[in-house]
Design goal:
It contains six helices and two strands, in the order H-H-H-E-E-H-H-H. It has 165 residues and is mainly alpha-helical. Helix 1 runs antiparallel to helix 2. Keywords: Coiled coil.
């Protein structure tokens, strides 16, 4: 009963808003066609009617935006075409389509090679002074010879078992 009342109320208010907007549009058209340069009252009335129409249209846009947000939230995780389209657009936005090279040229074909070269250079090891390495490693705990033999023995034993399998 309440649901039917709400539907009827929404339908009635929507019809009222639509008729008010149509009436305002007609009044604006009439004022625009009959306006003269010297009559400031007609210009003020025209401005007032245009502002009133703008306010109605803004309210209608707010309602459409609210309904759109509700639909978006409702359909966000449901397995619908909206969800799959959203996933497709998200995955597509994470793919690189092209790269801009340091010279400013845009490339698409050798893109992977350029990215691999860049990151290879970024993370490659650099040669350094042997004295610096010794200073860095000085004071680190060392394995005893027995522990070293046990660890090496278990690695070779593991390798032998792997080959047997």
């Amino acid at each position: 009963m309440v649901g039917v009342f709400c539907q009827q109320y929404c339908s009635h208010s929507s019809a009222n808003v639509k008729s008010v907007i149509q009436r305002l549009e007609e009044e604006i058209r009439d004022l625009e066609s009959n306006i003269t340069d010297s009559n400031s009252t007609d210009r003020d009335r025209l401005q007032h009617k245009e502002q009133e129409l703008c306010n109605f249209l803004n309210e209608r846009a707010k309602g459409a935006l609210l309904r759109s947000r509700f639909t978006t939230i409702r359909d966000m995780d449901a397995p619908t075409s909206f969800f799959f389209g959203l996933e497709k657009s998200e995955s597509g936005s994470k793919q690189m389509a092209c790269l801009q090279l340091p010279g400013g040229r845009i490339t698409t074909n050798p893109m992977k090679r350029h990215a691999v070269d860049y990151y290879s250079k970024l993370f490659q090891s650099e040669t350094c002074c042997r004295d610096s390495v010794d200073e860095l490693l000085q004071g680190l705990p060392q394995l005893t010879t027995e522990d070293r033999e046990v660890l090496l023995h278990s690695i070779t034993t593991f390798d032998d078992k792997t080959f047997d399998i």
